[in-house]
């Protein structure tokens, strides 16, 4: 238990004011110096950013100084009541003020008062105008007596420091989630991303101001939410049913100039919404649209007649996209046959893009990093299988014949140069 002396009550801590004032003066000097550098070289954005940061820091420190002054004034008013009680006890019980200690700097019901060597419990009326003392004893005799004011940040500074650390933790967790999810920003691509943004904002905004929630509890809550997010991502990638339930799937809104009204209304899109989305992409007549797909993030992907051939990601993350096959009016057996023709398995394919009647396959890395010519050999093999290139065609190609002629010519030139070098030595021996 902490006990405060009469000297402590009448001499409040003012060290923090002087420290904040000194820091504010230093920041003012830095602002003047950096402002002078920025005025001389306005093309250097480093000085501009530093100038803005220093001004914001100086305003923050000045605001903290005023907040501490207001807090100290309020604390002094409350401490004055405790000081008056100590003075009254000293006068009535004929004991020195230096021998009276209180367990609180403010009047509270049940506070402990040490008078000489006897402990008392203080009780007050509703307006704190009168008090009564009752003798009491301590269970824990470990008592710390404060006679002199010690340096401390104060309650208001500790509160802002706690908020600062919570904001820092929230900022780091956001950055880590963005980097681990493979995104460059918080722009949502499906319902899970949107929910992640909402809940993270609620957690960070609702907990940073609560003094009952510690920094460790705040960090644990953020970890729990991050774990839920990444578990949902695993389920979306591995199971098609979770992908449909949690992330959704693309919907065909327009096919060959015909609007699918049922699908449009089922996704909550009115006719005015559809025409607005078409106009934003430069389409004024829906009959010019070959395909319009409503993506998971609510955006509309439009392909018009006469545009370049479309590409379809029929395989993603080792699974076949059934919705893409439906748009192509193809079956799953057709996609599996394309994979078998490429001597691959569906689970080995990271991305399978169907472009210009050919399946372009990007496989998962299954072996350690190999030299570039191994990778080149694999690409050549894939290209050969996709374009029906066999050894007989390679032998009959003009490029290979030219390569053979060039090799023979170089071999003939090398043999002639060798004979010319050997002839003078032979004559000298003779």
Automatic annotation (TrEMBL):
**Which chain regions cross the lipid bilayer?**
15-38, 50-70, 160-180, 216-236
Locate the region Disordered.
Answer: 393-430
Top-level taxon of origin:
Bacteria
Record's subcellular location: Cell membrane
Where does the record place Basic and acidic residues bias?
402-430
Keyword Transferase listed: no
How is the protein disposed in the membrane?
Multi-pass membrane protein
| Record Pfam families | DUF3290 (PF11694), DUF421 (PF04239), YetF_N (PF20730)
Q: Where is the YetF-like N-terminal transmembrane domain?
A: 160-234
Looking up InterPro entries in the UniProt record yields:
DUF3290, DUF421, UPF0702_alpha/beta_dom_sf, YetF_N
Presence of keyword Cell membrane: yes
Domain (YetF C-terminal) spans 238-354
Keywords of this entry: Cell membrane, Membrane, Transmembrane, Transmembrane helix
Q: Which family does it belong to?
A: Belongs to the UPF0702 family.
- What's this protein's name? DUF3290 family protein
Taxonomic path: Bacteria, Bacillati, Bacillota, Bacilli, Lactobacillales
């Amino acid at each position: 238990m902490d006990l405060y002396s009469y000297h402590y009550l009448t001499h409040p801590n003012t060290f923090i004011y002087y420290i904040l004032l000194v820091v504010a003066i230093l920041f003012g000097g830095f602002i003047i110096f950096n402002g002078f550098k920025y005025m001389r070289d306005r093309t250097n954005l480093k000085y501009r950013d530093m100038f803005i940061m220093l001004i914001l820091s100086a305003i923050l420190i000045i605001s903290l100084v005023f907040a501490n002054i207001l807090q100290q004034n309020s604390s002094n008013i409350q401490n004055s009541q405790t000081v008056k009680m100590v003075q009254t006890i000293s006068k009535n019980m004929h004991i020195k003020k230096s021998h009276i200690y209180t367990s609180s700097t403010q009047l509270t019901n049940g506070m402990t008062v040490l008078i000489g060597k006897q402990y008392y419990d203080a009780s007050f009326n509703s307006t704190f105008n009168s008090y009564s003392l009752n003798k009491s004893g301590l269970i824990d005799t470990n008592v710390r007596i404060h006679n002199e004011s010690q340096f401390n940040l104060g309650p208001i500074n500790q509160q802002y420091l706690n908020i600062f650390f919570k904001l820092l933790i929230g900022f780091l967790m956001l950055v880590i989630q963005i980097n681990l999810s493979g995104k460059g920003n918080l722009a949502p691509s499906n319902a899970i991303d949107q929910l992640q943004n909402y809940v993270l904002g609620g957690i960070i905004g609702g907990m940073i101001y609560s003094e009952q929630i510690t920094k460790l509890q705040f960090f644990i809550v953020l970890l729990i939410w991050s774990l839920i997010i990444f578990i949902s991502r695993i389920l979306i990638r591995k199971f098609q049913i979770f992908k449909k339930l949690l992330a959704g799937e693309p919907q065909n809104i327009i096919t060959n100039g015909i609007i699918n009204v049922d699908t449009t209304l089922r996704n909550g899109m009115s006719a005015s919404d559809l025409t607005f989305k078409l106009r934003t992409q430069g389409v004024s007549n829906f009959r010019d649209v070959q395909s319009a797909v409503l993506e998971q993030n609510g955006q509309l992907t439009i392909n018009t007649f006469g545009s370049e051939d479309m590409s379809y990601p029929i395989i993603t993350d080792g699974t076949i996209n059934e919705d893409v096959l439906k748009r192509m009016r193809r079956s799953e057996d057709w996609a599996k046959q394309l994979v078998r023709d490429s001597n691959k398995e569906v689970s080995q394919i990271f991305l399978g893009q169907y472009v210009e009647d050919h399946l372009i396959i990007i496989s998962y890395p299954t072996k350690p990093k190999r030299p570039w010519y191994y990778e080149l050999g694999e690409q050549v093999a894939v290209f050969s299988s996709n374009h029906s290139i066999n050894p007989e065609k390679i032998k009959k190609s003009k490029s290979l014949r030219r390569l053979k002629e060039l090799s023979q010519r170089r071999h003939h030139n090398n043999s002639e140069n060798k004979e010319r070098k050997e002839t003078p030595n032979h004559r000298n021996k003779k």
